[in-house]
Amino acid sequence: MSTLLGQLGTRGLRLGRIAGIPVALDWSWFPIAFLLVLGISSSLADDLGTAGAIGTAVLLATGFFGSILAHEFGHALVARRFGIRTESIALHVFGGVARLTSEPRRPAHEFWVAAAGPAVSLGLALAFFLVAAVIPVETTLPLPFIVIYLAAAQLAWANLILGVFNLIPGFPLDGGRILRAVLWHRRKSWREGTRIAARAGAVIGAIMIGLGVALAFLTNDAFRGLMLAGIGFMVRQAARAEELRAHSGAAPFAPGGFGPGPSSARIPDSVRVVRLPDGQIVVIRDPASRPTDGR
Fold first, then answer.
1. pLDDT tens per residue across span 45-97
2. Per residue in 148-176, pLDDT tens?
3. CA dist., res. 197 & res. 200, Å (int)
C-alpha cells in the first residue's frame, strides 16, 4: 500500500512548466473530472438546458482544479522564497501535491510554507464571492452571466472548504504542519512536534474514515462518502508513517542530507525508506526486520 500511495501523482499527463515548476495531471484525475462534469451537468440540465449545464459544469470543474493548483503553488512559491526548490506539482484523485526537494530548515519557514496554501484558497474564496456578488440574480440574465454566477458561487464555497479543511491541526494537512512548526519553535524539538502533529493526524484520519463510511451507507451520497473515507485513509497512513519517522531516530531525508537533527543520523536496519503522497521521503519501521536499537 505504501508503494501505491507513493506513486500517486507521479504518473500522468505533463502540462508543461509554470514559474519554472513542472505541472502534471495524474491519470487518476481524469475519471474524477469526468464524474464531476457529468454529475453537475445532470443536476442543472432542467434549469439551464443542455448547453448551459455542460458549460457550467466544465467551468466549475476547471476552476476547482485550477484552485487546487493555485493552492499548491502557494506552498511552492513560498518554499522557493526560503531556498527550497519544488520538483513538481501534480493534481490527482484526492487533490494535489507539491513535491519539495527538502523540508524547511526552521520552524518559521515550515509555518509560512504550510500556511501559504490555505491563505491562497481563502483569498480565492473571497475573490469568487465578490464576483458572484456583483452579478445581479435575475431570471432575465443572459445565459453566460448565469453560468458565471453559478460557477463563481460554487467555487467560492469550494475554496472556503478547501482552505478551512487544510487548516485542521493534524499531519499531513497544512494545519498539522503549522502545529508542528509551533511546537517545534516552543519546545525546541522537531521530533516532539512531529509526534504530536502526527498523532493528531492519525486520529483525524480515523474520524474521516468513520464519517465517510457512515455517509456512504446512511445516505444516498456514496461517492462523497467513499471520497471522504479515502482521504481519511491517506491522512491516517501518512500520519502514522511520519510518527514512525520521528520515533526511528533518523533525521528527515532530503537531497543534500538535510535534516533538523544531526546530519550523521544513521538509518536503523529495522526501517525502510518510502515516499509519501505529499512527496516526502520517510522511513517506516519494517516489522519483518529485527530492530537493532533495542526498540
1. 777 777 777 887 888 888 888 999 999 999 999 999 999 999 889 887 777 88
2. 888 899 899 999 999 999 999 999 899 99
3. 5
87 an active-site residue? Answer: no
**How many of the other CB atoms lie within 10 Å of CB of 21?**
19
Q: Is residue 150 part of a domain?
A: yes
Percent of the residues in the chain that have a pLDDT greater than 70, as a whole number: 78
Catalytic residue (choose from 72, 103, 110, 243): 72
Pair 121, 159: CB distance under 8 Å: yes
**Nearest-angstrom CA–CA distance, 134 and 254:** 47
224 inside domain: no
Domain annotation covers residue 158 = yes
119 within some domain: yes
As a whole number of angstroms, the distance between CA 16 and CA 60 comes to 22
**Which domain range does residue 8 map to?**
1-167
Instruction: Report pTM.
Output: 0.76
